[in-house]
Fold this sequence. Notes:
- By secondary structure, the protein is mainly α.
- The chain has a single domain, classed as Growth Hormone, Chain: A, CATH 1.20.1250.20.
- Helix content is about 85%, strand content about 0%.
- Helix 12 (about 270-300) runs antiparallel to helix 20 (about 425-445).
- The longest helix has about 35 residues, at about 30-60.
- The two termini are about 30 Å apart.
Amino acid sequence: MLARDQPSTMQTAQDGLHATEAPVLMTTSESLSDAALISKIRWRLLPLMFAAYIIAYIDRVNIGFAALQMNPHLGFSATVYGLGAGVFFIGYFIFEVPSNLIMERVGARLWIARIMISWGLISAAMMFTRGPMSFYALRFLLGVAEAGFFPGMILYLTYWFPANERARAVALFMTANAVAGIVGGPLAGALLTMDGIGGLGGWQWLFLWEGIPAVAIGMIVFAYLPDGPQDARWLTVSERRRLEQRLAVDASAAGQHRRSVRQVLTDPRVWSFSWLYLALVIGLYSISFWLPQILKRFSGTSDLLVGLLSALPYVFAAIGMVWIGGHSDLTGERRWHVAWPALLAAGGLLLCSFANTSGLALAALSLAALGIWGALGPFWAMPTAMLSRSGAAAGIAWINAVGNLGGFVGPYAVGVLSDATGSLTIPLGALSSSLVIAAILALRMPDQRGQAR
């Protein structure tokens, strides 16, 4: 099991390091060998993790496309929709930390598979929404089912990737949610054209067909994903030893003493990261949940064309994640690689609030997406470098749980302000200010350049 096996291997590696009584100086051949090892791990793990996250993100935000038909069909106001979209994150918040702690105890393979299968079934059940109460209840249950998936994956990456490789690994993994937007928008638009087939609305077909893949991927995860390096039969003994030594050095730098969940959750640094992530997520999910309706309002085009147009901001999001995450790892700098993309995104949302054409709105939202998504890799490299392995499960889950409350605050606030003003100017301006706050909080973080390199 992960909780029992991992500390023992880490301790063995640390004992081996202490026995040398000298720092490990890597030759050119060893450096090349380590690069090959990291590349091997990337190709073995990230494609499956990537596919799983694409499905997760599509199922989480497909409500934005379903709303194009569901809201008028069921008579939902912008406030009802915003509350239902956001209540997902209440269930997610409540069960986030317990889910991550369970994963550390029972292993990633079993727990991630359980999460995916259960959320796929509930996502498909969204087709049975009949009114506000069933809408709220199913969205809440979807959040409960998915709780622990993302922080579990981030925690899982710390089992495999040294600190100076982590922002790139996180960015490559998280690019999946940008790719999900590229794929999910056109797919949702196509599924909405099935409106009336078999007596079902297009929005009902959307929920059904986008829920099934989560169950299938969950079964593949259970069959394929190793709990950690100690279970990876595709690593040689030499490769496993080198990886454990690299991770042991990082663990020592972070502080390898055992920490209780209470100690982690009362750590001021954990809370600082939580507030920073909250400010970023307010903007991220507001765009995700409202993008289709913003484009519909500006363009007045068909649902299919809205789905196609919505892919463009996610193309820029994917570019931002890979480019900014890679540059952050190259320089070892984290704070400014979060701050300046957040300010770029704030400018994009502010520009969108004054847009008077669909082309300008789409360009502004693309700029905002590049900035928000681009900040995520460098952001997650900071807390994973700071937390020791014993505190990582609770710490990462708590940062993600508190931060994802922004997924409730942002979309709900947009709905309320949109109903109250009949305009998107004030809601988008408020989202812009949240990202300025994120930039300020990022620059107040300690410089971790020494840990990241």
